[in-house]
Amino acid sequence: MVDIPDVLSLMEHWIKEEHDICHHVVNSGMHGVMEAHRDSNLREVFESADLFALDGILMVLIARLRGFKIKKKHTGPDILWEFARAASEKGYTNYFYGDEEPVLLRLEERLKGEFPNLQIVGHRSPPFRQLTPEEDAADVAAINQVAPDVLWVGLGMPKQEKWIFEHRSQLKTTVAMGSGAAFKFVSGDISRGPDWLRNMGFEWLWRLLSEPKRIWRRVFIDAPQFIGLVALEMTGLRKFGR
Q1: Which residues form the domain of 110?
Q2: 217 part of a folded domain
Q3: At 96, which helix (H) or strand (E)?
Q4: Is residue 213 part of a domain?
Q5: CA 203, CA 80: separation in Å to the nearest integer?
Q6: CATH number of the domain within which 9 lies
Q7: Dist CA 120 CA 126 (whole Å)
Q8: 50, 23 Cβ separation under 8 angstroms
Q9: What is the signed CA dihedral for 220, 81, 184, 39, rounded to 10 degrees?
Q10: Which of 15, 33, 6 is nearest to 161 (CA)?
Q11: pTM over 0.85
Q12: Tens of pLDDT, residues 223-235
């Protein structure tokens, strides 16, 4: 169980010492856990990942209840931003896969504006449909041609995690990380709440107000179910997982 700074340190370790292996990092919160609870295939993906970096106030609170000293300081978009800072200083290369072309262009513009030395070796916005085998192979070939240190996959949960799981044996990248909405956050397409609100653990409320159609189910259905299942587990009434 690690904080985001430890995630970044581990990513750097892999790039320096284990660069011939594709390491899958899942960065998700309550929403991802509930998806995996309902989908045994996604649960297999999560359990096969090299690292699960928790996100969201509910995950942090549960970790604290279980005795882990986890701080609510960084979230998914912060991993991308903070790694970009380190990558610009140390020369690590990055590739962005997913989301829409305009979002990717604004993402690169903002990152390069803040970190001029950042090496972005490519990006690709795949169609929002099932790819043909030829299209899929072409995307993998384009990524492998530049062999980035980190491949950021922004296809949304759970699609991005399943995509990494299915392709990791083919990918020439050291770290493949599901990025969720980080592309839109960092590019500025979706505004984030003020720091004081995020530090209090209420960024979910900001997102609910700004993206009600996208977030309402997580807040009003997934969150209560998650809390109930955690309560059952912690009281010993039910057991989950292995």
Answers
A1: 4-192
A2: no
A3: strand 93-98
A4: no
A5: 18
A6: 3.40.50
A7: 18
A8: yes
A9: -50
A10: 33
A11: yes
A12: 999 999 999 998 8
